[in-house]
Write a structure and sequence with these properties.
mainly alpha, three-stranded antiparallel β-sheet, two-stranded antiparallel sheet, 52% helix
């Protein structure tokens, strides 16, 4: 049993439609008005030409699809869409005469030999059928070691909230600086109600958020409508602290806004952790100093008892905690060198 090539299989196929369902499985039937003659053609379904189109487009490469694009293994477009259509058009134009070809194959040659606008439509359908037949391109995942351990559901939610908050902060800062640049120096000293300023920011940022725009001054961060808390924190940083009257809170537009990046204030938990770390380091240092003093006495032949070591250590720690100067001049000098 011999295996026919895609061209031979197409030429000898008596059916114009494919033995399947779908948009690209139906025969391409049109009536051509060529030189006043009503020529009817029934070209093979676009899906039947996929193998020939793949040979013309792929040139030996493995292809994938993503959206309207045909990609290579690296995720890059194999060529601009217009160039791919030209290749398929040239392939159909160059179909050779086959003596025993069936009518659907001959209709392709008839269609391509005319000046009909249906040629471009048929070429496009063949291109789209080829793209639909390709596997979907998947972005390669980083190796497991690079991605780190899997996060729990709570950790994923926390990471998502952090990303959203960062986008809100960046959006508020970018909009404020953009707005200040637009109004110029004429607005310096003007009072602006904080509620109204937040409402303006929400209206402007919401349009960009819905359009999936990126913030120009940020690296790949998209616009996101900021919460009141996030907006006022950033506005206090850029414009200065809000001021209050009996009826409202407002900002005074400064001559020069604070353009430094906004940094989140440290939480109570973080401040407590820092204090505990400093206290632990201080205690370790004092214990080490006391141990060194005891060893120094041992080296001089002075062997203190356990009770003496305990009392000395307690007195040493108590002396280090006090801020009052020592009464003994020698001890005062030692404190000054600490």
């Amino acid at each position: 049993m011999t295996t026919s090539s895609p061209l031979e299989a197409l030429a000898r196929n008596p059916r114009a439609d494919a033995r399947s369902s779908g948009r690209y499985a139906r025969a391409y039937e049109r009536k051509l008005d060529d030189d006043g003659l009503g020529i009817a053609v029934a070209c093979p379904a676009p899906v039947l030409l996929v193998d020939l189109a793949l040979a013309a487009v792929a040139t030996g490469r493995i292809l994938y699809r993503r959206g309207a694009l045909i990609l290579t293994e690296t995720g890059d477009p194999v060529a601009p869409t217009g160039e791919l259509l030209d290749r398929i058009h040239a392939m159909l134009d160059a179909l050779p005469h086959v003596a025993d070809a069936r009518e659907p194959y001959r209709d392709i040659r008839t269609l391509m030999a005319t000046g009909s606008a249906f040629r471009a439509e048929y070429v496009r359908l063949v291109h789209d059928a080829l793209r639909a037949s390709l596997p979907t391109y998947r972005t390669p995942r980083a190796p497991r070691a690079d991605r780190g351990p899997a996060m729990s559901a709570s950790e994923r939610k926390a990471a998502q909230r952090a990303r959203e908050h960062a986008a809100e902060v960046a959006s508020a800062r970018a909009w404020l600086l953009e707005r200040l640049k637009a109004v110029g120096s004429t607005a310096v000293g003007r009072r602006v109600a904080s509620e109204g300023l937040h409402a303006q920011a929400v209206d402007a940022i919401e349009l960009r958020w819905g359009a999936d725009e990126l913030i120009p001054s940020e690296d790949g961060i998209g616009w996101r409508v900021p919460s009141r808390r996030a907006f006022y924190a950033v506005a206090d940083h850029v414009l200065g602290a809000r001021q209050r009257t009996a009826r409202a809170r407002f900002y005074v537009i400064p001559a020069e806004p604070n353009r430094d990046p906004y940094e989140e204030p440290r939480t109570v938990t973080e401040r407590i952790a820092d204090a505990v770390e400093v206290a632990a380091a201080t205690i370790a240092e004092r214990v080490a100093d006391a141990a060194a003093a005891i060893l120094s006495r041992r080296s001089r032949g002075e062997v203190p008892t356990f009770d003496e070591q305990r009392d000395y250590l307690a007195a040493f720690l108590a002396r280090r905690r006090t801020t009052a100067p020592a009464s003994d001049p020698t001890e005062r000098h030692q404190h000054a060198l600490d």
